[in-house]
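Q&A log
Question type: sequence-to-structure
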Amino acid sequence: MKKIFALLLGIVAFMGVASAQNYMVVDSEKIFKSINEYNNTLVFLDNLAKSYQQQVDAKYQQIENLYNNYQQQKANLSAATRTIRENEILEKEAEAVKFQESIFGNEGEMMKKRIELIQPIQERVFKAIESYAKANGFDLVLDIASNATMLYYSPAVDRTEAVIQLVK
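Response status: OK
Response body:
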């Protein structure tokens, strides 16, 4: 019961604040897609990711070949040789995982490149949104691109096109 009361109180408070302030709506996804530099960067990053993925796949293919050869020869190998070959396969697999993480991990090359190329565009768009909002007296900006809880908005408060013009 307390949770429901708190939720209702929060909704009422938000509605009071939102109605007392001047707000606008933008679709950041549409803004970003209107910028050629952003679209070209996405294509570049996709191609780079495919190239890196081919390198990762080649490493795993090499491991699979080593494993298949080992399985075919396993019966004819001494215990010591089997252990050496198994360790070799495990080392190669660990190297492949480490390589994959260095490329696609949270601090990998792809993430660094994405930040390097996308962040300046994001900053430019966010500054344009802020500048437009300040210049036109808006106190609150809602982004409909990523807000899954936005159920309705009036096109009269949508300023996406104006921000697109400001960014260009």
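Response note: Strands lie at 23-26, 140-143.
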